[in-house]
Design a protein that fits this description.
By secondary structure, the chain is α/β, with parallel strands linked by helices. The chain is built from 13 helices and 10 strands. The chain has 2 domains: 189 residues, D-Maltodextrin-Binding Protein, domain 2, CATH 3.40.190; 146 residues, D-Maltodextrin-Binding Protein, domain 2 (3-Layer(aba) Sandwich), CATH 3.40.190. Helix content is 35%, strand content 17%. Strand 2, helix 2 and strand 3 form a beta-alpha-beta unit. The N terminus is likely disordered.
Amino acid sequence: MRKKTIWKSTAVAGMLVASLVLTGCGNSKGEADTGTKEKKSTTEEAKEEVQSTGSKELTVYSAYPDEENVIYFAAFEEDTGIKVNYVRLSAGELFARVRSEKDNPNAALVLAGNTDYYELAKSEGLFQAYESKELENVREAIKDPDNQWFPATEHAIGFACNKDWFEENNLEYPKTWDELLTDTYKDQISISHPSTAGTGYTIFMSMVEKLGEDGAFDYYTKLKNNLRQFTKSGAAPGMEVALGEAAVGIMFGDDALTTADQGYPIEVVYPEDETGYEVTGMAILNGAPEDQLENAKTFVDWMLSVRGQEMYLESNANRTPINENARAVDGAVQLSEINLIEHDPVWASENRERLIEDFNNKIDNPENAKS
């Protein structure tokens, strides 16, 4: 098993075409020269760029949920005057469309989906490089050294634990992956299937990279003895824990926090013996519509900025910002504080189909997964 640089997977089903028709910002007036020049903010520079190019639209393919897309794109238009027309796709659908349109892209920018997808698309020449000044506020470990894709957020796999169940059984929360294999958790664990949920594949790939392929299949064979069942959705284990149907849900920590925010008795812990993670990306498409190119660059700058990153607070999505100066939601844990498994996104993407087929044959058929 190859291991390389640290770089995350969530694919959600469905397609929705939407256009944000919002009120644009007026042009800001220039101020008299007082002899002192202050550094312009990203927003100020973006407005000037829009005025100079005359283009005020941007077409985006996004894998974020619609309830988030609306918030981010409305704020971007408010700040820059650029209206975003977007198509909501799962990550798999998004990159399939990008490949089908590679000779004449209809969109200028892609947003969300884990960087396994982005690394593979980069190797196929689907992106163009851009050096955003905002990257200076992002740690090196999650940057693309060629600046062909950019991190948007990051999150790690954790254990969503039902507080009531652990208190009633006088137990501490699990601290390692092996603890989940003990008889204590018989029929008490919920996890998503790797062929139906990007989260499920991220978890399985984490075990492959941690234990090797044979070790990962051996682990899942043992873990299956303690599962209620596999779920089709990556977020579903959180609701099973919330309702007391399971004691532990293996899932992304931010998704678990979102469920906890609804008032459910959930505590999120991260395994001490390494865990998997995902970096969500964005990129400017090679051959993007020329009149939208500068607007795509403006969006990258904006999304990487403190203003863009702190929109995660507004969306209540519990996403972890990658700008080191941005505020995070209460309870969010920076990945730099978690013991992470080294991840090779290119290998994970190239071997996805083969590994999922092996999983279906050796561990469980996705038809048995709970909706």
